[in-house]
Write a sequence for this structure.
């Protein structure tokens, strides 16, 4: 099975409350989720946060394994209280300063990605069909904002799950 990223607007009161939930429960008590192929093998949340020098109060859960599928699982979350506070910052990253964000994503990854394609992914959420990490990070940011808004409206938090193999070694880029 190939690697995936799933963004979920779910019940997240606190990291400890979230970690006590069964994996399937995350979706069962959610207000929606979406799964994407992780073609770049990179953690797009870390790319976005580093490129924009942002802190969204992300909590990193310990890597785990889904006992039903045997897949490697690594989850990150923003609890509902923190999410309500950082939503304006996320809106700024994705919408208000979209051109600067797209340029920062391209620069963060060596300047070889197409800025127009990254800008379009940030605006529309068009998930790349290639392993373009900058466009993948931009599309991730688009959907993170979408599900953050759903979560805040429904009194929830948001999490994202990485399932499968993420082979690159620089995965420590979670925050500034």
């Amino acid at each position: 099975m190939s690697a995936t990223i799933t963004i979920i607007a779910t019940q997240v009161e606190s990291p400890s409350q979230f970690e006590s939930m069964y994996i399937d429960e995350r979706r069962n008590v959610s207000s929606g989720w979406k799964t994407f192929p992780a073609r770049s093998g990179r953690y797009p949340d870390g790319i976005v946060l580093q490129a924009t020098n942002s802190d969204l109060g992300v909590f990193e859960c310990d890597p785990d394994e889904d006992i039903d599928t045997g897949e490697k699982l690594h989850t990150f979350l923003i609890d509902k209280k923190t999410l309500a506070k950082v939503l304006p910052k996320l809106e700024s990253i994705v919408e208000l300063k979209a051109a600067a964000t797209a340029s920062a994503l391209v620069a963060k990854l060596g300047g070889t990605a197409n800025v127009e394609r990254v800008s379009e992914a940030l605006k529309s959420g068009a998930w790349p069909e290639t392993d373009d990490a900058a466009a993948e990070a931009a599309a991730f940011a688009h959907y993170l904002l979408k599900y953050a808004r759903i979560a805040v409206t429904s009194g929830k938090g948001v999490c994202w799950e990485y399932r499968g193999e993420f082979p690159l070694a620089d995965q420590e880029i979670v925050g500034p």
